[in-house]
């Protein structure tokens, strides 16, 4: 992706457009026409455009936020149930959830984002038959990826000890991780299914399924952990079961719903063809998102090496849990941004794509700012939702200003990543993430945390300033300089390649 060669932020009214897709795709002809009307001042066009864009955006974003929030609440509720067993169990679940499980989550979610790019652009171009094949190809690749991940889970205790974690915490965390092995393969099916449905703006059914599953999950978790005394392993097994319930229910919807009749034609041998080209995009998507999700995983692992690791892990994991909860809101907007941008590019609407970016970024930032203010208002009471102890409460309160800054940044960064997925920029963003996060952010965090003896606060502040903030600024700069007409051309070439060769390839 040669994004640095682009020059215009928004196409002008005189820019020639590609022929829009036939009616029935995911693009908005009305929005494109409003934005192209040079007889109106930009402010009037923006207001009219917002009136069209906001319903399209919220129809995707609100159910997507609900889905990601509820899925995250399932993991968080498991952490709360297990955390009530004691501080060691809380530290173990935090390390297992954030230090090990997030590894698989990031990898699977990243690889599943290939479906998001290709299905979104194909649906926008009114080529529904391509979506089902993309879904199946992704599930094949992700299931194969799950096998070595399961082996790594089996050796999680040794891995954590080798990384320098204390033996008692590593042993307890491994028990929890063993119960999450079935969850790996639920991820392998869930993320492609989610992206397949989101590309068609079908999000509400997933939200209803998640709500029902959450209620069942809470009941089963209470039964397994509190009543049956199954401890960490029981909590993890219930979490895995809940994810499989979501997968089976969503797949049942795809097979039975008339809304998916054109996009799901049943299982096909084409799912095993062209896997090499599909793997290239999946790998680029995985690297991009894994570098982001693993970044905060590394933060937790580093915290386990600080003085008083149990207190550092407890306080930091609580903040990371809150951050992850609010982050799920931004991930919902990420999904909406990806769908709207990819649909408009596939439909040949460059102005609408650019305008969608502006609207979704502004809305996500506003929501994140409100959440940051709430966190600052309840900073002294925040830790008591998770565990008792005044020492943990003081440590969490001290970290809350930094948590608020992180929330605001995360109101923008995930949305811009969604734009990147919608455009197919995954490889470029992966390079940005390597530089910002791992060449600058991690070393700066280690320097502040260990050499200046600032502890968890130093590690986190260094990684936020050196990594997240710099990456967000770079993505903003690139997005503002994007030539959306060129992105429309690239989307058309990408889909034409698939039709000619039956392979979903992206240009290098």
From TrEMBL:
It is found in: Membrane. Residues 1-26 are annotated as: Disordered. Residues 1-16 have a biased composition (Low complexity). Its main location: membrane. InterPro entries: MATE_euk, MATE_fam. Keywords: Membrane, Transmembrane, Transmembrane helix. It is a multi-pass membrane protein. GO terms for molecular function: antiporter activity; xenobiotic transmembrane transporter activity. The keyword Transmembrane helix applies. GO terms for cellular component: membrane. The keyword Membrane applies. GO terms for biological process: xenobiotic detoxification by transmembrane export across the plasma membrane. The chain crosses the membrane at residues 56-74, 139-156, 168-190, 202-225, 231-256, 277-302, 322-341, 353-376, 396-416, 428-452, 458-480. Belongs to the multi antimicrobial extrusion (MATE) (TC 2.A.66.1) family. This is Protein DETOXIFICATION. The lineage of its organism: Eukaryota, Viridiplantae, Streptophyta, Embryophyta, Tracheophyta.
